[in-house]
Amino acid sequence: MKTGPLNESELEWLDDVLARYGNDHSIMDVSELDGMLTAILSAPYAIEPAEWLLSLWGGAEHVPRWANDRERDRFVNLTLQHMDDVAERLSDYPDQFEPLFGTREEEGQDITIVEEWCFGYMRGVGLSDWSTLPADQQPSLDAIALHGDEAQLSRLEALSADEYVASVDAITPAALSLYQYWMANPQTAPVNVPVKNDNKTGRNDPCPCGSGKKYKNCCLK
Which domain of life does the protein's organism represent (predicted)? Predict the structure, then answer.
């Protein structure tokens, strides 16, 4: 797999794939993807790629029917390459870390769009347990949630122009602060406890292994 930042054409290709295969439950563009990956890298404990790649599409039932294996592999490889680049900036070059915000043009000016990135970040937060985040770090998470949580919409609309600009400027330092906190204070991932079956198998019952023998003549031995 290649390393280093994705070039513009690679980012555009990822954006196109996300738009083409996206659904109401999935990540829809590279800005939202970048936010989600940043939160996953900043999580209290490691999240396996098998888990977050499914979440990216909204669950196993929404995984795309890829045109071919090459398309699927390129998507995964570019996503992992971009994730590695974000990880390196967060860890080793924080002064070079910049969220991949979107832009749109209005009246000849480029307007920065932060909402998609913040929604992606909050989606990544939901993949692990952030409940032990201390009170002094909560404002950092709130700064991102302000733009990434529909429940905050009325509060966001009430901001003055200067307050809105200040809230946007707070996102990058907030993301860095959260990453640095969890890296210094990692948590233990929860252990999945197997479901206990209270219905014990009788000696003369069919063996649950499916052999067709009686339990006493099979796995009970």
Answer: Bacteria
